[in-house]
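Subject: sequence -> structure tokens, single chain

Hey, anyone have a minute? Need the predicted structure for the following. Not urgent.
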Amino acid sequence: MLALPLPAEDISYRILPFQLHKNIGLTLLIIIVVMVAMRLITNREQAAQIKTKREKLALIDYWAIYVLIGTACLTGYLSSSYSGWETVFWWLVDFPAWAEESDELNILFSDLHKWSCWALLLVAALHISAALYHGFRNDDQIKKMFDPK
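Reply:
Had a minute. Here:
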């Protein structure tokens, strides 16, 4: 997206992809906050029941995904905030900028955004690999994920 030309009088098509990207990211951030809150409220007794190394790794994986999605979304918003571009949430609500435009902070948060996204892709690949492992082993782990108990 950074390769798109900056908006000008006759070029404005960069604005829509960036605004859509920011809207999706902020929506994901809200969803992640709600999911983490629900998980903390409803799964207190489940955390005490974790015994095996595999269960501990699965819990670490889930929390890593939550943290990395939240980090990617938040650092993207902060980068945008310090870039001087406004963020309008789904074209309805103007989000405030945290401070005045700052190239240094924009670059810092942009780099953090990029690396948290790469880390998220790595953790997601590990998560998918584990799901495939359990699916091919046919060890009922996939069935447990969909069991409401």
